[in-house]
Amino acid sequence: MEMGIEVQAIDQTLAHALGSVSSATLTTVLLKKGLRNVWLRGTKPLAPGQPRAVGRAFTLRFISAREDLATPAAWSSPISTRTAVEAMPPGCICVAGAMGVTDAGIFGDILCARMRKIGVAALVTDGVVRDVSGVLSTGLPVWCQGAAAPASVTGLTFVNWQEPIDCGGVAIFPNDVIVADEDGAVVIPAALLEPVVHLALEQERLETWIMDKVVAGERLPGLYPPDAENLLRYESEKSA
Prior knowledge:
alpha/beta, 21% strand
């Protein structure tokens, strides 16, 4: 069963560039474009040192549990997390809006193992996972609020995939781009991807230059952020 919106391939040049841009830099660049609410609250790395993730959002939506729908029998329904996982293409990032619920694990080790097997890049959620040791053993990078033993149906009802969701208080649309690292997960709206990448790369270069000056002993006023004089120095040294 197929639902929702087909996942678009991400330009590999842009994806490679995002592999070297921090989520912190992206929030700064997006702020300059007028977007303040782009960092998904509660999306912390499940394990230290897990690889950063870049990919198109494949969205899953959970709502509050309703007893006639949120039952173990729902796991075999055509509209289920199991069916949604099978619709995920390689390279996507599963973004699950779980309403910030922390006492019901949306995925466990078996679903995460399947996601890893079919090439899903990561799981990002404002909820929690269960079977955490098993999830870690799958090698699937996960950003979430931690772990809880109860199954998802004790607190949540899964209703759909590949539609707009709320995750961590942020609006996520299918095919938005997610970048997740040690600081959490950030969304780049699909229509802004190319200009944001170019601005982010320049921001990283500028901040590297500023850091070099700080290490050399220069004072912060006028350097960070750079005033007109220091911007001229930066442009001169960059082109040298």
